[in-house]
């Protein structure tokens, strides 16, 4: 309760703690990010967004920009291989048991990955339904979820200037983060000093 009093009431101004249903729903959503993201993508995502091109760039400028950006990996939209928990039978009335089942599967998968190369297709710390973007320094990767590629930030029907202003600011911010994280420690964006 002290955590809620300080963070939620004092810092965020909430008047009362969330009820049990809201708290359990939020916790379940956090644990089932990829599963929820799969449903979100089915409702909102179009692969047409990936084909969007800046036709005002000349070929030399486009090639130069793409060469510089080629050192930075990107994930756009949602996970290629979402974790769907197909092996779990969920019980609508057993929140805690469901929580333990998910934790067990995640722990077993993590232990199974020991000594193996990192699966670079896994989204870390952000999901398709998050209206945010981030930069992952350890993987030199920018992640742009589907939720931020929606109006008012981006719309295939909008004027290109609006799209560059909206999403360009977000992606530019992440590129600056990449430079800040990598600048002093890396000779190139993939080889550490």
How is the biggest beta sheet arranged?
Answer: 3 strands, mixed
* Beta strand count: 5
Oligomer: single chain
Question: Shape from CA axes?
Answer: globular
Order of helices and strands: HHHHEHEEHEE
Roughly how much helix do the residues carry, as a percent range? 40-55%
Give the helix tally: 6
Proportion of strand residues = 5-15%
Helix/strand-derived category reads mainly alpha
Give the radius of gyration.
20 Å
End-to-end Cα distance, whole Å, is 46 Å
Strand order of the largest sheet: 1-3-2
Tell me, rounded to a whole number, the average pLDDT: 82
Question: How many separate domains make up the residues?
Answer: 2
Low-confidence segments, given as residue ranges, are 186-193
Family: Belongs to the peptidase M13 family.
Domain Peptidase M13 C-terminal: 132-177
GO molecular function, one term: metalloendopeptidase activity
Pfam family, one: Peptidase_M13
Protein described:
By secondary structure, this protein is mostly helical. The chain has two domains: 32-83 and 122-192, no CATH class; 89-119, no CATH class. It is 45% helix and 9% strand. It contains six helices and five strands, in the order ααααβαββαββ. It has a three-stranded mixed sheet with strand order 1-3-2, covered by helices on one side. A two-stranded antiparallel ribbon has the order 4-5. A hairpin with a 2-residue loop joins β4 (186-188) and β5. The longest helix is centred in the last third of the chain and has 23 residues, at 160-182. Mean pLDDT is 82; it is low at 186-193.
